[in-house]
Amino acid sequence: MSSLKQPTAGIVLAAGMSQRFASTKQLVRFKGKYLLEWVLEHALNSQLDRLILVLGHDADHILKSLNLPGSEARLQVVFNPHFQEGLSRSLRAGLAAVKATHPSVMFLLGDQPMVPTDILNLLLERFWQSSKDICVPVYQGRRGNPVLFNRNWYDRLLSLAGDIGARELIKEHPGQVLAVEIENPLCFVDIDTPADLKRFI
């Protein structure tokens, strides 16, 4: 089954406006690095074949500030000029960059710095071995991110609109979803506010 889903591309959604932070959230310091650097590091150390970083708000500042590995050929930055229209536009911008080359994708959130490489690899391996089209991590019954889709869902994903990700697709098609139980609740933490940041540093 794995050959039908590999290689898998990662798409890091990091184009948001950080409205609950006084500064650009992607560049908030967290345990010695920027939030977004943690996400990229974990993803680049995983079995993902390629990584698309989707930026929008304050993109130039983010790119100048990040310590991006110049030698990392797997990493590509995509600019989403419609970032104010919500998460779906970033999802679509990232997917458009890999839909012709990769039979599956993993969507990662740019504000989830505590999803380690081993969890990303666990999700990838379970997904590759499964006959299901969609894969999500679950902790004590609660669904989280990152999520994976095979190419059967690309058209549906590219038709999404507004400030929603793929939640509704997952909810509407439970029979197509592989739920992978995760033991670490920190994997489900989004750094959405300064209070969140203070709680985990």
Largest beta sheet, briefly? 8 strands, mixed
Radius of gyration: 16 Å
How far apart the termini lie comes to: 41 Å
Question: Quick one: CATH class?
Answer: Alpha Beta
Round the mean pLDDT to the nearest integer and report it: 90
CATH superfamily: Spore Coat Polysaccharide Biosynthesis Protein SpsA, Chain A
- For the record, the count of structural domains works out to 1
Please tally the β strands and state the result.
10
What is the H/E string? EEEHEHEHEHEEEHHEH
| Strand residues, percent | 15-25%
Fill in the CATH topology.
Spore Coat Polysaccharide Biosynthesis Protein SpsA, Chain A
Helical percentage: 25-40%
Task: State the CATH architecture.
Answer: Alpha-Beta Complex
Number of helices: 7
- Give start-end ranges of low-pLDDT stretches: none
- Given helix and strand content, the structural type is alpha/beta
